[in-house]
Design goal:
The complex is a heterotetramer, with 2 copies of chain A (about 140 residues) and 2 copies of chain B (about 120 residues).
Chain A: E1 2-6, H1 12-25, H2 30-51, E2 59-66, E3 70-77, H3 93-97, H4 107-114, E4 117-122, E5 129-136
Antiparallel strand pairs in A: 1-2, 2-3, 3-5, 4-5
Helix pairs in contact in A: 1-2, 2-4
Chain B: E1 5-11, E2 16-23, H1 30-42, E3 47-54, H2 60-75, E4 79-83, H3 87-96, E5 103-105, H4 108-113
Parallel strand pairs in B: 2-3, 3-4, 4-5
Antiparallel strand pairs in B: 1-2
Classes of the chains: A alpha+beta (about 140), B alpha/beta (about 120).
The complex binds adenosine-5'-diphosphate (2 copies).
Chain lengths: ~140, ~120, ~140, ~120
């Protein structure tokens, strides 16, 4: 299924509720649903803040596809944030707490920790940025 | 459109205060949370209890706010206590490493008793 | 915002959760949110059962638009159920209970009771059927 | 995909039984609900209490199921009691006219006491 929402901070909640409802319907347990909610919120927040410059005239699209054993989530933004990062840094919480770096920059890292797959895909057709995540229903499944 | 967070402070005694959070711990929560934290710090308390009972949504911006509070608390030599975070919150706190700087407690009473 | 879901009974829940999240975000109270949830569920169930013949290869689209004082909800189906009814009958529960007519046929009636406006619109471009509902945030507003 | 409804029957005494419903009262609930109703009717009870405490979604198909039960209950001269429907359920029951055929109660105890 597909969801199109105006790029406005707070609207990531709509995507989060949709993802939770779909995940519940296809049998994910409460812990995995909480993971999905957090990951999709972070991905949508980024698509809104960076990919759409938080301008609600822009829209982001979320595509949810339930397969037998996994849920695939694709978040598409208009690509106004330029090319997305090609790698994800582990946050250095000690440096943040010591005030060496400002607290933040943990969204993508959290997503990679919570999801089984996560990567940016640069669209070949237009300037849009796609972020694709996959989560398996059972953690220890053969992949 | 507004994202609701309600923050309430509660002074237990000269050493301990509670910050009750109800709602989403996101960017929108920054001012209310840091405001509440400053207020109880001005009282001079040494133990700061965050009550997470009424929260189920935290995001990376919310975690960044808490990390900022840890920084301040260390400067002020305060002790931070996290009461009743959901199991999801606990997992995230552990993942990020926040649990090195703040104790997790299953109830407000447990948190308060631990600093008696 | 826009939601596209496969025409499968049960998927109306996704629309229901989205509508509830949007309505909450724009300040509807709990009672009105419950009304919205029921109305959108009935409209989507009809769009799935009649308008798409409950074939999940078909899709229904839900468009939610928040205005200052009202929420507009449009449910679009591919029109496989033929022309929608032009009027809504009050259910005769006594006749149902006496077994004179089978229990049922209350969906559209419930919607008209719960929403401030509700009507079918036959699309001029294609065969699709549109059902449009409007609900005001405050019941006694000047309309 | 499955829509969950859990139906449980409970025999209180020779005259009264409770049908506990948890989940969504929709088309998918028809067999479980009518099955439970037949079961307790076979026991010969005269008072049928529906416990709606764990439901928050009913649709027109669910209401049609309940109307079907009213029809059967009248044939069997049973009394129907609706315990703890949410305020939304109560409003819908009233709108449809179901409240003419079944009493609404705020608790299971209240329902049971009313037929003692
Ligand atoms: N959709 C996107 N388009 C372009 N750049 C992005 C996108 N998502 C993330 N980024 C970039 O990746 C960086 C890291 O993102 P993230 O880990 O979520 O932390 P934060 O948002 O706190 O910086 C962002 O600062 C931004 O520069
Ligand atoms: N989207 C639609 N497309 C075509 N016909 C429809 C649609 N929605 C409703 N109808 C028609 O209107 C009738 C009444 O619908 P409703 O009041 O919801 O009760 P029920 O679904 O129980 O029959 C349906 O039986 C159907 O024939």
């Amino acid at each position: 299924m597909e969801l199109k929402i105006p790029s406005e901070l707070g609207n990531e909640k709509i995507a989060r509720e949709v993802a939770a409802t779909v995940a519940k319907r296809v049998g994910f347990d409460a812990e995995r649903i909480a993971d999905i909610k957090m990951a999709i919120s972070e991905a949508c927040t980024n698509a809104i803040s960076y990919g759409s410059k938080a301008d609600s005239r822009n829209k982001i699209t979320v595509i949810l596809t339930a397969h037998d054993e996994k849920l695939e989530i694709v978040v598409i933004d208009p690509g106004l944030g330029g090319p997305p990062p090609s790698n994800v840094n582990n946050p250095d919480i000690e440096d943040m707490i010591d005030g060496i770096i400002p607290p933040g920059g943990m969204g993508l890292w959290l997503i990679t920790e919570l999801m089984d797959e996560a990567q940016f895909i640069q669209s070949e057709e237009d300037d849009s940025t796609e972020f694709r995540m996959v989560i398996y229903r059972n953690k220890n499944i053969e992949q | 459109m507004s994202d609701e967070i309600q923050v309430e402070v509660q002074r237990l005694n000269s050493r301990t205060a509670v910050i009750n959070l109800a709602g989403d711990v996101t960017t929108f929560a920054e001012k209310p949370i840091t405001g509440a934290y400053k207020q109880i710090s001005d009282w001079g308390v040494k133990n700061v209890v965050f009550n997470f009972r009424e929260n189920d949504y935290i995001n990376s911006a919310g975690i960044a706010i808490l990390i900022g509070i840890v920084t301040e608390a260390r400067k002020r030599k305060q002790r931070l206590l996290m009461a009743m975070p959901s199991s999801h919150f606990q997992k995230i706190f552990r993942m990020v490493g926040l649990t090195q700087y703040a104790d997790i407690h299953n109830s407000i009473d447990e948190a308060i008793n631990s600093v008696k």
